[in-house]
Batch of 2 targets.
Target 1
Amino acid sequence: MYDLIIVGGGPAGLTAGIYAVRSGLDTLVLDRSEISGQIALADIVENYPGFPSISGLELMEKYKSHAQEAGVKTKITDVLSVRSEGAKKIVSTDSGDLESRAVIIATGANPKHLDVPGEEELISKGVSYCAICDGPFFRNKTVVVIGGGNSAITDALFLSKIARKVYVIHRRDRLRAAKILQDRAFATSNIEFIFNACVAEIVGSKGEIRRVEKIALNDLKSREIRELATDGVFIYVGIHPNTEIVNVDKDEEGFIKTDRSLETSEKGIYAVGDCRDTNIWQLVAAVRDGALAATAANEYIENFKEQVK
Ligand code: NAP
């Protein structure tokens, strides 16, 4: 039996792992892939103290090697469920059940879909949720970016260096993104903003090899629908937490509710990073969560060690 199993090897999970090992806990981090975490998909991170400008992937690789050097064990596997059995925790994976005294859920979140006609069937045929992954396919082409938050504007800026033209389409008359990102985007000549509009449909070309050809735009003021030709559609309308594996209290969107020590409604199960209900989905907040939950889990394990021998 492990002292602590951490589900998810992004920044929050690996930070929890480093803190747990340093507290003397026998710790295992489970993840379904070698490099995980949404941050690995970020072109440039500029708001992580100590690193004025670093690629998300490079930062993630640094976390990974730091965790390995600290003695955190990792296993690549798909976690199916996490539950309590008495004071023991059972983590079911696609390669069998594992047991531990405590669990930290660090499963993060994935991009939400727009849920408009054409979106699902044109994924990877022009519809994308990640500019750094798919942007290079759109050299000198026209793309649209949907959303007005930090993700939309960060990736619109990234795409503006590759594509000929970038339209940012936002449903309100002002952006939600940080002012510094807004200022940069407004000053970029090949980014054009279309406010008060939303996408009614994504339309693909006819024939065997389908690709995005245009979108139908709904003007929310005039209620008129117009078409806009585009080669790609990049969607950034928020995130959806990966929390289906655990049956604990969640908010209406599925983010896990936690107390001050990041414990969930189930004793000995903690939640950290983007999968929990927080008001700041940021790297610095994720690593802080990891440290806090590992410290709390250590205390919990000390108190309950005798019961779960
Ligand atoms: P977000 O901040 O929630 O922004 C989502 C955007 O999508 C909002 O502008 C929202 O419009 C719009 N939207 C939502 N549903 C929509 C729909 N059905 N149709 C059209 N538009 C829709 O999400 P995010 O940008 O993915 O960021 C997630 C978190 O990560 C945030 O906390 C963000 O600060 C953080 N993040 C930080 C950085 C950074 O610091 N560099 C970079 C990326 C992400 P409204 O504004 O009208 O609600």
Target 2
Amino acid sequence: MEADRSVLEIWGKSQLQGQVKISGAKNAALAIVAGALLCPEDCRLQNVPSLVDINRMSQILEALGVKIERQGDILDINASQISSDRAPYEIVSQLRASFFCIGPILARLGVARVPLPGGCEIGARPVDFHVRGLQGMGATVQINGGMVHAYAPPGGLKGAKIYLDYPSVGATETLMMAATLAEGETTIENAAQEPEVIDLAAFCQSMGAKIQGAGTKKIAISGVAKLHSTDYTIIPDRIETGTFLIAGAITHSPISLAPVVPEHITPIIAKLQAMGAETIAVAPNQLRIVPAENHRATDIETQPYPGFPTDMQAPFMALLSLSRGSCVMTETVFENRMRHAAELNRMGADIRVKGNNAAIRGVPMLSGAPVVATDLRASAALVLAGLAAEGTTRIEGLHHMDRGYERLDLKLQQLGAKLQRVPADS
Ligand code: UD1
């Protein structure tokens, strides 16, 4: 699946109905595909979403000499032979998460060369925590020519006590993977507690890794000499879940979603409730959204898990722009993640951004307009706004959407939304 240069046309104001199937979690799958590098035997991954980002991560593994086969949502990976220690720049530069490969490559081969991922649409996103953690485990790290060269000490990485200045998801994952094959005990303090970190730990455990405390602020890993074959199923995507809950709320449609893990979306449900919407568990892994007639404004601040996820900030901004009253959205995780506000304003929203705060005054209606998706979650915000707007919305920049939402347009069509991809020049 290559980057799509077409645009999405949405004819707003359709009522949605029915049930949507939630795909496997993008961020869990990305880390787990990288984690398959740790395993010298067959790895079968199930519920892997079909996404441009996952294809890119797979291409990195292939460039390292790993065998990968995909059939539907199953990915079969065999990393018994890793013939290169160098991840290709062309791919790493397009997918920040591919930097996370540095942990498993270094643990398996004793040397890893991975390009610095560089900035991205939502901020600088440095990798200093990853690098410092690996150094703590005895690695020598040199950065030259835009490439991080990491060398394990003779005898391999050593267990270490690591403290993260910030609970970075990626750094927690890189270091946890590296530690599974290090000699001795590693502890990661102030670790990220995201469900995707727990899923990666569970995947590593299924291969024989000894990990305790994933999902808490302190993870303890006792290194083992070798991991073994596994067959592992990835959790449902909590951000896709949240996006469809808002699709129901913003179109006033009581749609159902499955499979979902309600405890992964506690802050999302809490904020929907604060706005007057209800979520009903119709089965243990199925939720229905019951929208309010008029959603109320509510303040939101993004935080590391279990706080409100930064990846839901843009989609919520679309709903808040149509709510009754005023509120403030504060972004604390990334420094440049509010560019969708200007695009929402083109559709009639009243949002003023100052630094990392957005003051949102609810308006009674949005109107369709040509808009540009500036990053992955911004694309979702514009689709949601387009569903609720009067008239036609034309969204450019669909390559962002395809990075992280599996067939979002198709899933919405199946719920009754009126939208289609058309060539950019039509
Ligand atoms: C992951 C998610 C992304 C999500 C983010 C926060 C994946 C593939 N992506 O990104 O969707 O939005 O978590 O929940 O899982 N930082 C540093 N130095 C570092 C690492 C991070 O300063 O070495 C900073 C970042 O610039 C950012 C903050 O820490 O301001 C959080 O980043 P982090 O949790 O690492 O995000 P990612 O793992 O890149």
